[in-house]
Structure prediction request, 225 residues.
Amino acid sequence: MTTLTQRTFSSRDELDAALAARLAGALAATGASAVMLSGGSTPMAAYARVATQPLAHDDRLHVLFTDDRYVPADSTASNYHQSRALTLALALPDESLLRVRTELPLDEAAADYDAALTTLLSSGVHVGLGLLGLGADGHTCSLFSMADLDRARGRYAIPVKRPDGMSAVSVTPELLATVREPVFIVAGPGKEAAVEALRAQDRSLVAWRAVQGCADVELWYSPQG
Prediction:
């Protein structure tokens, strides 16, 4: 059974500050660990705050991404590109920064990311903090439908056709089940229905179904955008 812990913030700045502190702490953890970053606009202010701080971290730190659109790595639509201020500040070696290699054909990019995640986890690295978004339609990562969840069985990453016509590569519920501290970060108007469904632990919500392999999940929410 998955337990949901909730935290509501009265302002967006309060959420950003709390997320920056949580993220900085996770990046500074000792041992062979990884942090999973989400895309979208919500966490970017926190990423920028952390990037301006002195960043000391264990040499065994890894960073991975929940998903990425199938666009060039330098596209403004790329989660990898949007997070570059933070990842550049961390100055990780290439092998410690796991990204979706969108220069490959889509199916190969998904298989490559799946293989990289498999290697990471089999090496003894654990995923500590994992940030998750929540769409107004109830999706998380680039998992938009129950069919996506069904296709994801037995894999850590899959190719996805997004409702907006774009393609993406997404982590799967099996990968999310390995994350020790999964946290939904949600802000702004237009997501009230999705937030309420998540709070109600509605099993018809894709995002809630995606984290059913997790023992504990957090929801951090600010109504302010």
